[in-house]
Amino acid sequence: MTEFAWDTALNEDREPAVEPEVEPEVEPEIELHHEDLQEQEEPTTLTLSVNDFSALEERVLRTVEVVRRERHARAAAEERAARAESQLHEQVPIVEQLEKEVSLLRAERDHVRERVERLLAQLDALEL
């Protein structure tokens, strides 16, 4: 069903609207010169040459192609972003585990450093 027919079918169920009476507007009298009358009598037509129409068609086709490429590029970018986010979520536990290991290794390094410093201090004491 067309839009007009649909609107008509919908409006059939309703009560007819009462339109308020509007007083006709009184237009002031305007004197037109003979030159003005000639200008009004000439019909205004929009002429579009074949070249202009072809150029317009070409511009529309290029615009459609640009929009199509941009939509594909956007879809590809969204897909890459989704994959990257998925990989990020997979890497979070690994990163946390590595941070714990680094922390433990630093603590162990500090402990070994203290032991080496004590041993060096004992060797220095023996040489006296």
How is this structure best described in words?
The protein is mainly α and 128 residues long. 75% of the residues lie in helices and 0% in strands. It has 3 helices and no strands. It has helices at 3-12, 34-41, 50-127. The longest helix is centred in the last third of the chain and has 78 residues, at 50-127. It starts with a helix and ends with a helix. The relative contact order is 0.03.
Chain-wise SSE layout:
Elements: H1 3-12, H2 34-41, H3 50-127
Give the terminus-to-terminus CA distance: 110 Å
| Rg, Cα atoms, Å | 43 Å
Order of helices and strands: HHH
Low-confidence stretches: 1-13, 26-30
Mean pLDDT: 78
**With helices defined by DSSP (H or I, 4 residues minimum), what is the helix count?**
3
* Helical proportion, percent range: over 70%
Shape: rod-shaped
Question: Strand pairing plus helix content: what structural class?
Answer: mainly alpha
Strand content: under 5%
Quick one: biggest sheet? none
How many strands appear in the DSSP assignment? Answer: 0
Which tags fit this structure?
128 residues; mainly alpha; rod-shaped; disordered N terminus
Provide a brief overview of the structure.
This protein has 128 residues and is mainly α. It is built from three helices and no strands.
